[in-house]
């Protein structure tokens, strides 16, 4: 067993979670406020990865980003970005795949706050951005934590999307879940067991931390 | 001076309602909007503060146009010079009392105003507490102080005292009145409490189904000027019971329930929930110290 796939998995999960957080906060804010007619469509799209087989998502991304296709070709020629079989491609796929795990907790957290909190802030001369940053987000810390940890854990556990778009290139796209599959195929049950145990422990610990903090057992870390 | 003339179609549980409010409030005046729930009082305050856009009309405050449908002007709430005290206080749970007040400061504003308000509202003991640990009356004082940090010209109070007991109400009415005078505010209050209205306001507007139906000085509005009564109180009918040939009407006045004998012609137009005045002319009331 090597540590490379584990480290790559953690890097992927960290990068994905960071990007998702930046994307999901404005998206969740918009969803919690809007009365637009396209809201159900956006909500359905955000939730799609929950029900769609990861291989479907991976398959279409593979097609879209392949240099044989117009979009992939354009990315490659004009921006020098190759998303197929690369770490950047994995991050992009993981962001889409884990989107609902970040958006849903933040959206429900924001929706649960009384409207008068933001209205009070507006009447006190504050902008929407200041209100979001100083009033709304600090008051939904448990939801933010849930979103971050679930996205991280979910990205660690993904397999189908990674396999389709990333393949199995050591040091680049060979994450732990792929390594397990690979070792089992090669009948290296010992190595597969090593990776599996580490993933099992990591998943358990991250989830345990969420429940400990949000359950108020570690009060000094919360509001 | 506030000149407000707004129209809005509101959707409520009883169907849609046409709200049309036209009122002028002089600078430094203290006025009250009075009326049943759902009459459009809160919506009026929300339109004045910019939290709800009117369908048409205009709002001008001290010569500045805040809203004008024709001219497509709609000033953002943050640029309207108002202090708004919400019914549920709307204190920020993540901040202490001091931080709640400091949050309201404008970028270049001097911090002394916060200290001044903490002293005026007697919040020194509470300044490092979070809102979650405060009682209703304490929260209300913080909300009032916070609304005054930006030294607004207009103070809007949406039933600020309705959740408090009567002793606390008395005290907070005093705070409100002091702030109104000290900071030279133009204040609009929403209240159901007749005693409170008479104590605080210069003028009262009664709203019904989205319209102002009556207006005047509080004592005239609630019938205090009509009889030369020796003593009189306002209260609410709780119960009407027939006993032999007379009726016994139980009326809540403040925290007390009193029973008054009435005949059929007097009770025929009364029902529980009505606001009434109880007065006596012929006898001198006896005053006893308790």
From TrEMBL, chain A:
InterPro entries assigned: MetI-like, MetI-like_sf, ModB_ABC
Signal peptide positions on this chain: none
Span of domain ABC transmembrane type-1: 6-210
Matching PROSITE patterns: ABC_TM1 (PS50928)
CDD domains per UniProt: TM_PBP2
Cell compartment(s), UniProt: Cell membrane
Keyword Transmembrane helix: yes
Gene3D superfamilies to which the protein is assigned, alphabetical: MetI-like (1.10.3720.10)
Pfam families reported for this sequence: BPD_transp_1
GO molecular function term, any single one: molybdate ion transmembrane transporter activity
Positions of transmembrane segments: 12-32, 44-66, 78-99, 143-165, 194-213
Similarity-based family: Belongs to the binding-protein-dependent transport system permease family. CysTW subfamily.
Entry function: Part of the binding-protein-dependent transport system for molybdenum; probably responsible for the translocation of the substrate across the membrane.
Protein name: Molybdenum transport system permease
Organism: Sinomicrobium weinanense
Phylogenetic classification of the source organism: Bacteria, Pseudomonadati, Bacteroidota, Flavobacteriia, Flavobacteriales
From TrEMBL, chain B:
GO function term, MF aspect, one: ATP hydrolysis activity
GO cellular component terms listed in the entry, alphabetical order: membrane
Top-level division of the source organism's lineage: Bacteria
Alphabetical list of InterPro entries matching this protein: AAA+_ATPase (IPR003593), ABC_SmlMolc_Importer (IPR050093), ABC_transporter-like_ATP-bd (IPR003439), ABC_transporter-like_CS (IPR017871), ABC_transpr_FbpC (IPR015853), P-loop_NTPase (IPR027417)
Record PROSITE patterns: ABC_TRANSPORTER_1, ABC_TRANSPORTER_2
Pfam families xref list: ABC_tran (PF00005)
Keywords from the UniProt entry: ATP-binding, Cell membrane, Ion transport, Iron, Iron transport, Membrane, Nucleotide-binding, Transport
Gene3D superfamilies membership: P-loop containing nucleotide triphosphate hydrolases (3.40.50.300)
Every ABC transporter domain range: 1-234
Iron recorded as keyword: yes
PANTHER family hit by this protein: SPERMIDINE/PUTRESCINE IMPORT ATP-BINDING PROTEIN POTA, SPERMIDINE_PUTRESCINE IMPORT ATP-BINDING PROTEIN POTA
Protein's name in the database: ATP-binding cassette domain-containing protein
